[in-house]
Amino acid sequence: MAQAPHQKIVAVRITGPEQAVREFLSRHPAETAAQKRDGDQISVEIFIPEPLVEQIDQKQLKVQVLYDASARGRERQKEVGKGNRFERDQRIPAGLGTKTREPPR
Question: Phi and psi (nearest 5°) for 47?
Answer without folding.
Answer: -105, 125
